From TrEMBL:
Signal peptide: none
Any single Pfam family the record assigns to this protein: V-set
Protein known as: Immunoglobulin V-set domain-containing protein
Organism of this sequence: Cyclopterus lumpus
Domain Immunoglobulin V-set, residue spans: 18-112
Alphabetized Gene3D superfamilies for the sequence: Immunoglobulins (2.60.40.10)
Amino acid sequence: SSFLCSSVFLFKITSQCSVTLGGSVSIQLMTNASGQQLWCKKKLTSGSINIFSLKKEKVTIQGPYRNRTEFFINNGTLKITKVERNDSGEYTVDVFDPNGILLRTMNVKLDVQGKCLEPSSLPVYSC
């Protein structure tokens, strides 16, 4: 199934997305991230972990997400591949203007379900 998480004109939005273990998920955070600064974090029981940041048109992917995550500036989409069970949880994206003023905060809850599938039968989800 296909979902679209769009929050272009809202200050705070929470969206829910489900994906199969081992699959890929694409989450559209905005229609275009050009000219903005973004910080994406995943909430943990003891704080949070940085997923990616966007500053001056440069995307920096952090830690365990580095080799399986992309952020597309032109359409504001976050893509995570080879989804793992511990990817489940709440992700927070703070969007700032070029002067560092907070424009909005988005929360996306990702629910990883099921058993790992064979690579040839992995579905791709869009949220």
